[in-house]
Amino acid sequence: QQANITMWGLLDVSLKSVSTGGVSATQMATDGMQNSRLGFRVEEDLGSGLRAGAWLEMAPVADTGAMYPSGKLWHRRSTVSLYTGAGELRLGRDLNPTFYNLAVFDPFSAVGVGASFNLVTNLGSGAATLLRTDNAVSYNLPANQGGWYGQVQVAPGEGVAGNRYGGARIGYQSGPWNAAVAYAHTGTATSTPFKLMNAGLSYDAGVAKVMLLLNGAQYGALKQTSWQLGVTVPVGLGLIKASYQHANASGAGTDANDANQAALGYVYNLSKRTALYGTYSHLSNSGKASFKVGTPPGAVAGANSRGVEIGIMHAF
Amino acid sequence: QQANITMWGLLDVSLKSVSTGGVSATQMATDGMQNSRLGFRVEEDLGSGLRAGAWLEMAPVADTGAMYPSGKLWHRRSTVSLYTGAGELRLGRDLNPTFYNLAVFDPFSAVGVGASFNLVTNLGSGAATLLRTDNAVSYNLPANQGGWYGQVQVAPGEGVAGNRYGGARIGYQSGPWNAAVAYAHTGTATSTPFKLMNAGLSYDAGVAKVMLLLNGAQYGALKQTSWQLGVTVPVGLGLIKASYQHANASGAGTDANDANQAALGYVYNLSKRTALYGTYSHLSNSGKASFKVGTPPGAVAGANSRGVEIGIMHAF
Amino acid sequence: QQANITMWGLLDVSLKSVSTGGVSATQMATDGMQNSRLGFRVEEDLGSGLRAGAWLEMAPVADTGAMYPSGKLWHRRSTVSLYTGAGELRLGRDLNPTFYNLAVFDPFSAVGVGASFNLVTNLGSGAATLLRTDNAVSYNLPANQGGWYGQVQVAPGEGVAGNRYGGARIGYQSGPWNAAVAYAHTGTATSTPFKLMNAGLSYDAGVAKVMLLLNGAQYGALKQTSWQLGVTVPVGLGLIKASYQHANASGAGTDANDANQAALGYVYNLSKRTALYGTYSHLSNSGKASFKVGTPPGAVAGANSRGVEIGIMHAF
Description:
The structure is a homotrimer. The first copy, chain A, is mainly beta. Chain A is built from one helix and 17 strands. Chains in contact: A-B, A-C, B-C.
């Protein structure tokens, strides 16, 4: 190879059982602890403090060998970057600013039956930007800014309602503390935009790391606000994870549609790259709320949903 | 790359002419001698006799650049493994136990116009488990068991009729001898399961290797049993292959639907990784049997099918 | 890896604005200067002057992470080769002989809003062979033939009208001069074939390289002939590109459907592998001609089309 291409990956396969509204399904699943991936990336030093980079990353469905259901071969990331002393200009498909807090300040990293992400909603707005954005122009702050980090991302919808995105995130990390806020605005098929904002705070005391995550979504009169308290406790080669989340819906007759989720997990690290894990999560819906810890089975309005999964994750 | 990723592949392209029921088609084809592939795999030593591994393998359609018709990006294999002194636990999509004998004890390795697999049938049961299984939990015996090898595989159907599989294989290899038996049970859309069982025996005398393959399928009253005699003869850098197979159908008015196949092939090894090959196969259908040595053209009940292909295989 | 696999790639992302018939669209686009790719190839020395090779090359859509719209995973190339002292036998999907001149003698290499290819047409014949061919058997002259180079390619249609191709190209390069001619014949759904022929000539004077490209297409009574004059001028680390093309339609009432394109571009090389670029192109249609410099928006008969794009290309 002409350039020094870095290739890496991760496969995560689990046995998962979910029960929602009295219907149960047990299956082999994937991505219970971390999302499966296979990537190729490269960086070139252009001199004068400039660097160029390219990044292509797939999302294999490890249990069936399928391409990711999005149908995008490079589902996770496809970007070209230009790095300068003043930051990184990044072009292409990528995670967006408002997603990061939902993963960083969640003990379950927004993955699996215990993910805080289970209660995140676009409020029926059709916004397709809860995780990733296509055609994005991103600017990322350079490293080593005295603890500050941040990013801005703008993406045209290119004719697809729900894809037009503008968002930003700024954070500060110092010693055991980490805090960040993010805001985004997504165009929809109506004249009303979908807005998402969130904030996270964590403190790592060594014997335990505690996290607070706040998230708010708005689509016209429809609103949802949620808070989550999370904790991770290292025990020898293992890590205990726990979280409790409450989501409060309001507006347009949805005030009763609240939901709660409590999750408990354990990771046993066989090495830095390989782990066994187990997670249990219980989600209760009020009113007509229809959140779920996973599929199948499908969501049922007002019913509880609970799930358990045990799996193995191998990164390379 | 963080881990030591092994990348490998194989492309096999041929010119193939098939005539079935008087209709002929000549085309550029692929996978006449071995199946094309591109794979990525990794293993990690976890200490204490434990190892972890991941395996992702695609099936390029070499003559057109297409993805495999299954639509699965990682059509050939997508698994995570944990190896212990007591064997390997493997999770994901993979070949299943009942397929192995059909390849190992066939001079044509279940590939191309001469494949024993041309006469293998699911008897219209809808079972999709003649080769591979999704969502499979497999246990493989460790190496060096005094000649014994074996595997067990269980897979939930996950709501898809014809995907629910349970099967096992056990074999013994010693000096020139190799023998194995396998059995599997696949759920179908009806209350009747599809059952497949097969056995193989081979003896490698040096100047020639002879093989016997027995295969039996049952779906309620419908049955098919077949036997195949095969031989491979090394001649300098080349290898002559020949096989004769007879398949006997019975039950539910299918008793007359028997079929025979005779195949002759030659492989000329340009190196350990590159070969030229040619294969001729003749298949005769009785009654309403509609087997074929390849497509196009489509199968014709009761008609003969014959094919010839010459190709090049390059492994890397 | 058993063999010495070469992995390489290129990502090209741009901001593109196209206006056609008074309708404008601005978007993040891809492949403005070079086509994005990710490839795997290998060669093996078989001794006695023989070599074998395999080549698999994808076409990532860099701005969205999608697979190429053709739906072919290995869209760019999928071939097995056998190299002898008398030339290369190549089997599979590949560029075809009549495409090369359209890229080699175009300052814009047949890519982006300024591509000569914008005026190339199959005259509505349904021929799908303007760039690549599936199931192709190709013969390429060996290197070092005293300046001569050439190739022949034959491909069966395999039942798909517009895919049956036979073509050849021969060229001569000596010092600053390079010249080549190509001809191809493609089967269509009617009894009338589509014929394409082209020729190119270039002279590299060091301070500038000038190029002439002639292209002719015929489908029964329908004809199109075009000529293009191109020039590239290196300026320090940069390269200025300019071209002017005239396409003349004739036959079956299409005599008035002519078109012209003028394009100007600048490439600034940040390194041998990384470049920033900008291109402007203006295309005018006469009569009912409906060529365009890019999409969206769609083509409009008789209307002008112009486009500008700025982008970054990183090869690895």
